[in-house]
Amino acid sequence: MESARRPRYGGTLRVEIGAVVKSLDPATGATTPGEAAAKDDIDPLLYEGRSLEGAYTGAIGSGPFRVAEWEPGQRLVLVANESFREGRPFVDSVEIRMGRAARDRLLDVELDRADVAEIPPEEVRHAAEHGVRVSVSLPDELVAVVFVAGRPATEDRRSREALSRSIDRAAIVNFILQKQGEPAGGLLPQWSSGTAFLFSTAVDTAQARNIWSEITGPRRIVLGYDASDSLEESIAERIAVDAREAGGSVTVAAIKPGAGSVNADARLVRLRMASANPGEALARDIAAWGPIAGVSADPAPTAMPQQIYDAERAIVSTYRIVPLVWLPRAYGLGTRVRDWKAPATGAGWPFTDLWLGEVP
Amino acid sequence: MTFRTKLFVVFMLALLLSVAIVAVGVAAVTRRAFQDSNRTHSEALVAQFEREFERHKQDIVHRVQGIADAEATVRMAIDLSRPKADVSVYVNDARGVSESHQLDFLDFAGDDGSIISSNELPARFGYKIDWLAQPQDWAALGAFLRKVDTQDGPALGLMSVSVVRVGDRNLYVFGGERLGKDFLASLVLPSGMRALLYMNLDTSFQPSNLVDESGPVTDGERFAEVIEWEREQPTERVFHIAWTPDAASGESFHLLPLLGRQGELLGALLVGSSDREVVMLERRIIWLAAGVAAMGLLLGLLMSWWGAARVTRPVLKLAEGAREVSEGNWSARVEVRGRNEIAQLAKAFNRMTEQLSEQRERLVQAERVAAWRELARRLAHELKNPLFPLETTVENLQRAKEQSPEQFEEVFRESTGILLSEIENLKKIVGRFSDFAKMPQPEIGPVNLNETVRGIVKLFESQFGAVGRPPITPELHLEEGLPAIQADEALLRRAIENLVLNAMDAMPAGGVLMLRTTHENGDVDLEVSDTGSGLTPEECDRLFTPYYTTKQHGTGLGLAIVQSVVSDHGGRISVESESGVGTSFHIHLPAKPPVRSPVAVVEAGSSNGE
C-alpha cells in the first residue's frame, strides 16, 4: 500500500484533449485557438528548452519524450526519452487522443478509461460532483471582446463602452462558468499583476442604457465567436442578452475555423497567458490582438508594475479590448495518476514528474 | 330562309338554350354546394383548431404541472428556499427538463421572478420576469398565449405557469410549446384546405411571421392588409384572395384571432380553403355540358332536320299544290296522312281545289251559256234589223200583187232593190262574225313598235282634226332605243288601231290621246290612254268578253280581237279606268312570243271598262 506513494516507472499515460493538432512543426501555424493552446502544451514535451523570446530550443525529441506514433489530428503517442538531460520521465509513454468531445472526456476519466482529460471550466463542478479528481490551475486564460478596428458600428467609443458596461461578468462566472474563474477588468490577472482590482468589473446597466440612448449612428453590433467553442457561444449569447436589457443590440455570429474574413464588428477571443511574467504576457497578448483592435503597447518584460498598469490601463480605456473573465485550466485525473501538479502558466503539461500507480 | 330552316333553327336554339340553362343551373347549384361544404369544412376546422388548442392548453398545463410536481423541482425549490442558496447550480436544468417533457419553452424563476434557468434563452439567467411574481391564480388561468424571447428572436408560445411553494418562497415553472409550423402540421386538414398562422411579434406586418406547416408562406404580403385590420381590431373575419387571374387559384380564408392574457393580439389562425376543386368541377361540368351539348346538338341537328322535314313536308306539298293551282292546275291534290292540323289543312286544301274546280266548271258553263245568249241576243239584234225591212218589203210585194197589179212592176223593182240591200247587210253581219271566227295565226317577224305606233297616228291624223268635230290631240311618249320584238305587225297594227278608234269614240268632245312605249329586259309595253268619260268596274270586268259592247252600234268584237292578238303573241292586256278621267289600256309584249300561244291573261283594273 505504501508503495503507491513511492514513484515508479512504467505505464502509458492516457490523455484526452478536445483540440485537434494537425502538425507538430512549430513553424506551422495553428488554425484554431484550441490547436495553438494544445501545441503550447505538447511542444515542451518534445523540446529540451525554450529561449527568452519563447522559441523552443533543440531538435524535436530532445525533450522528455519522443514521437513514437503520429496520426495527425487524431492520435499522438510519445515515448520516454531515456537520454533527457533532466532525467527520464516516470511513464514509459503518453498516448494523446485528440478531438474528443467534452462529454466523452469526462466520461472516460470518470470510468478510468483516461488518466488525464481536459475539462471545460464550466464542467468542473459537475465532474467533481461525480467523484472525478479535478485539478484547476490559476486563472490564466482571458476571455475578452476584441473590437475590430474600422467597423462603423463600433468606431464610436461610446458604443464600445456601453457594451462593456452592460456585461454582467459576475453572472458569466457564476452561472456559465459555474463559479470557476473570475471576472476580468484588466488584461492581466490579479495573481500576476497585483493591480487587477483597480479595473472595474461591475455591471452598470443604467449607464450603458444612457450611453446607448445618446448614440445616433448604427447601434447593432455583430459579435463573432468560435463556432467550435460552446463556452464562447454561451458567453456571446449572454452578452447579447445583457446588451439588449441595456437598450443595445448585439447579434451573435458563429465563426467557423478557416472561414476567412467574417463580417463581425467584434470577436470573442481567448487570450492564454504565454508567461507568468506580466510584462511578457501583456506584450504577447497585444502582439496577437493589438493589430486587429487597432491598439498598441510595448511593455518590456522587465517593466515596473506601474508601467505595466499604465499600459494595461491605456488599452482598456479605449474599450477596444474588453476583458470579461479569467479562466483556469482544468483537468480530470484518473485514479492511477500520482504526483500531479497543476500546470504552471506558460508551461506545458506536467507529464514529466507524474507517475502511474496501481489501480485500487 | 325556308320554313324548314327556320323550324330547324328554332329547334336548335331551344336545344342550346335548354343545355345552357341546365349547365348553368348545375354549375350554380354545384358551386353553392361546394361553397357550403367549404364553409362547413372551414368552420369545422376552426372548431377543430379551437378544440385542439384547448387540448394543447390542457396538455401544457399538465406537463408544466408535472415538472413542478417532479421531485427534482421540489428539491430545487427546497434548495432555493435556503438563505444564500446557490442558484447557479440549476442554470442548465431547464434544457434537460424541457427535453424530457417535450416542451419548447421552459423557465425556472425564483421567488422574485428572477430567471434561474431558461431553455429558450439560456443566457437570460438572472433577469427578472416581472409579471411572473405578481399575484395571480395561475392554476385557474390555465394555459395562455404569450410572446416568448428566444435565441432566434421572439416566438409565439402557448404557455402555462405552475408554482412550487416552499415555506414562504415560490419557485415558478413557466413553460410551454411554440406555436408555429409544427403546431400547424399537427392539425388534420381536409384536402384543398390549409392552415396558416400569423405571429404578431413585430410592430407591423412582417411576411416572415406568416407560416404554414412548411415554413414562411409564399406571397405573404398579400395578407398584409387583412392582418393590419386585425391588428387594429381583432375579430373573426372571412376573406378571399385571388392569387392569379386564374379563378382556380382563389382561396377563401377564415381568420381566427389569437389573443394573449391581457386580450392583446398575439397571432391569427387563417384557415384557407382552395377554390380549385370548385372551379375544376365547374369546368368539368362546363366541358361535360359542352360535350353533351355538342352531342345533343349533333343529335338535335339530325332530329331537328328530320323533325323539321317531317313537319314541313306536308306544308311543302301544300305549297306545291297551291303553286300548281296558281298556275292553273285546278286538279292539283295534296296527299293526306294522319289527322293532325297539317292533315286537316291538306284536306281543306283538297276540298278547296275541288270546290274551285267545280265552281270554275260551273263558271265556264255559265259563261258559255251567257256567251251563247249574248251571241244569240246579238245575232237576233243584228238579224232583226234587216229582217224587218225584208218582211215589210215582201208584204208590200204581196199587197201590190193583190191590190195594185198595175203598180206591181214598179213595186217589184223597188222591193227587190230593198231586198238585195238588206240581204247585203245580212251578208256583212255574217261576214264580221265569220272574220272573228277565222282569226288568222300570227306571222312572226321583227317589229319596231315605235314605228308601228307612229304609222297608226299618222294614219289617223286627218280624223283627229277633222272639220266638224272637236279636236283630239295625240301625245307620243316613245322610248328611244326600243328593241324590236318578234311579232305579226299586221295583227298588232289592227289591235292598236282598234284601241285608237275606241279612244276616239270615248272622246266625242275631244281630248288627248296618249301613246307611250317602254321596255324592260327586252319586253316592251304599250300604253294607250284617253281622256274620255271612263268606265265602270263592271264594264271593265266584261270589256274583253266577245259581243259585249258599251256602244250603241258596236259588235262587241273589237276588244275581244285585241285581246286575242295580244294573247297570240304571248302578251297580256289590262285596262285601268277612272270615271270622269279616262281609260288606259296596257299591253305587255314579250321580246319573242312562245312557240305555242299561251292562254291570254286579262287583268282588269279597278275602274270602268269599255
What does this structure look like?
With 360 residues, chain A is of the alpha+beta class. Chain A has 2 domains: 2-137 and 330-356, Periplasmic binding protein-like II (D-Maltodextrin-Binding Protein, domain 2), CATH 3.40.190.10; 141-327, Dipeptide-binding Protein, Domain 3 (Dipeptide-binding Protein, domain 3, Roll), CATH 3.10.105.10. Chain A contains 10 helices and 17 strands. A 7-stranded mixed beta sheet of chain A has the order 4-5-6-1-7-15-8. In chain A, β4 (65-71) and β5 form a beta hairpin. The mean pLDDT of chain A is 89. With 610 residues, chain B is an alpha+beta fold. In chain B, strands 8-7-6-11-10-9 form a 6-stranded antiparallel beta sheet, with helices on both faces. In chain B, strands 13-15-16-18-17-19 form a 6-stranded mixed beta sheet.
Number of helices of chain B: 14
Q: Based on DSSP secondary structure assignment, what is the total number of beta strands of chain A?
A: 17
- Count of runs of 4 or more consecutive helical residues of chain A: 10
Number of domains of chain A: 2
Strand order of the largest sheet of chain A: 4-5-6-1-7-15-8
Number of domains of chain B: 4
Shape-level CATH architecture of the largest domain in chain B: 2-Layer Sandwich
- Note the gap between the termini of chain A: 10 Å
Structure classification of chain A: alpha+beta
Using a beta-carbon cutoff below 8 angstroms, give the protein chain pair with the largest interface and the number of residues from each chain.
A-B, 15 and 13 residues
Q: Supply the helix-strand structural class of chain B.
A: alpha+beta
User: Percentage of helical residues of chain B?
Assistant: 40-55%
The count of strands of chain B amounts to 19
Q: Biggest sheet of chain A, in brief?
A: 7 strands, mixed
Order of helices and strands of chain A: EHEEEEEHEHEEHHEHHEHEEHHEEEE
- At the fourth level of CATH, the homologous superfamily of the largest domain in chain B is Histidine kinase-like ATPase, C-terminal domain
